[in-house]
Amino acid sequence: MSYLVSKVIRTWKTETHLYFYISIEIMDKIARAVNQLYEKYPYPYLPVKSENDLIGKLHHNVMANILETAGLEITSLSGKTILDAGCGTGEKACYYSYHGANVSAIDLSSASLLRARELADKFNLAVDFKQCDIADFTPFNQFDHIFCLGVLHHTSDPYTRFGKLAGMCKPGGTITVGLYNTYGRLWHRLRRMKIRKKAGNNIEKRMDYVERAIFGRKFKSAHEKAFAADKYANPYESYHSVGEVLGWFDKNDISFTGAYPQTGKGKIGALITQLKWLSARKGFFIVSGKKNP
Q: Do 58 and 145 have their domain in common?
């Protein structure tokens, strides 16, 4: 081997290793920063005080639309294995368990998981909570249904984590993701830029600014404070289109089943719909698919 070729190979190896370590450091930095927020402000911290709050209000306000995108009914959850990836304070995980599912739920935030376990205990529900990153989670078996809502856009590599989740889904099972939209979230992104300019990157300074300038009063509850922190003070978020997620589905042998808000057919139809979301300021969307047998 010539000296020149040998030098090129050594240089390539050095730069590759350096790039690898830099990537890991960036990933860890983002995870640490986001987790710091949720340790201080567990999310969503919904005011679930009764069974009606858990199965009535939660279903009407949130879960009905989520299940519909995956073609699921409440009665179809019983006996199924479900993964809630990025479960936060556990309301959705408890909802699945209440309706008879065998639920595993993971999250990085110990504070959020503490609240989640308290909620499960309150209603005598058996949910297997674990403190874990999606990238590090290795289950013993695949799941019938996987839900990952409002999580991937707070990670350094959403697609890689989606691929990891897709590998955990049984053939014939469903996977549901919720993400910030590239178009519908635009106005909010501009507001976040203003907050950063006024308050910098410090979470507490951002929260003080949001309380004064946006809410115009003191936060009224833990849920409201958690909502404000997640929406305005989160140190990192990324933005995605329906077409991008459909591409993720194609690469992982997943067939589209539904979306909320509903989108036009195909990538062009979805693009037209998303441009409408821009004017309507619909910044969050849910897409579901079925893993092909």
A: yes
Range of the domain at 200: 186-233
Looking at the structure, tell me whether residues 107 and 47 fall in a common domain: yes
pLDDT of residue 281: 87
**In angstroms, what CA-CA distances link 128 with 109, 117, 121, 139, 240?**
15, 9, 12, 11, 30
Question: Is residue 272 assigned to a domain?
Answer: yes
Signed CA dihedral, 219, 220, 221, 226: sign only? negative
- Same domain as 180, residue 190: no
Residue 19 included in any domain: no
**Pair 110, 167 in one domain:** yes
Question: Between vectors from CA 282 to CA 271 and to CA 272, what angle results, nearest 5°?
Answer: 15
Q: Which region, left, alpha or beta, applies to residue 55 given φ > 0 means left and ψ of -120 to 50 means alpha?
A: alpha
Tokens of 282: 């619909």
CA atoms within 13 A on the CB side of 88: 22
pLDDT of residue 270: 86
Q: Where are the beta strands (DSSP E) in the chain?
A: 81-85, 102-107, 127-131, 143-149, 169-180, 254-260, 284-291
For residues 226 and 176, membership in a common domain is answered with no
Same domain, 83 and 217: no
pTM of the model as a whole? 0.89
Lowest mean pLDDT among 10-14, 177-181, 237-241, 249-253: 10-14
Measured from the Cβ of residue 181, the count of other Cβ atoms closer than 10 Å reads: 21
User: What is the C-alpha to C-alpha distance for residues 212 and 206, in angstroms, rounded to an integer?
Assistant: 10
How confident is the model over 12-54, as pLDDT tens digits?
Answer: 333 333 433 434 444 578 999 999 999 999 999 999 999 999 9
Contact present, 131 and 108 (Cβ < 8 Å): yes
Neighbour order of strands in the sheet with 254-260: 127-131, 102-107, 81-85, 143-149, 169-180, 284-291, 254-260
Residue 12 lies in a domain: no
